[in-house]
Amino acid sequence: MEENILEDIFELEKENMQDNIEALKKSFRTIRSGKVTTSALDDVKVKYYGTPTALNQVATVLVSDATTITISPWEKNILRDIEQAIQMANIGVNPNNNGEVIKLFYPPMTTEQRQKGAKEAKIKGDNAKISIRNSRKDANKEIKNLEKEKDITEDESRKAQEQVQKLTDEFVTMADSLVKTKQEELMKV
Description:
This protein is an alpha+beta fold. The chain is built from 4 helices and 6 strands; from the N terminus they run αββββαββαα. A hairpin with a 2-residue loop joins strand 3 (about 60-65) and strand 4 (about 70-75). The termini are far apart.
């Protein structure tokens, strides 16, 4: 029976740590790198018939070139609403509305912006590692409680904690690798 309890703890631990990695990847999409991506607009919500709706649900959002995003609304009457939503989202660029489409022109990144982005990536990575270590702490606490309740032996507890540490090390390494890749992407001109 204790085997199943420990397996459940490991499985939950792994899921939590994987969720932290996915959250880190998602947060990296908000950091601008050398070329623009439509993910910069993922959090932009447009009032569409009174309901906050994701931009990509009311318009076609395309990267025209390395520094330009073009937004073509499916209904021309919401062009102004899209423009306002982008301005309120404060994504670091002003929308240009020509009456047909909205274009976002991103200036080339400066060295200072790249360094700031690299620092931001490191901070996000550090936060992810803290969350991963908190998951480890929770799992170890559960394992120690099982030992205290005599549901598992001291040896089983020690082995289980070692396994949790291995899992933690694996995910911390993964987070470090993601940060390094993002920083390299940011610093590449």
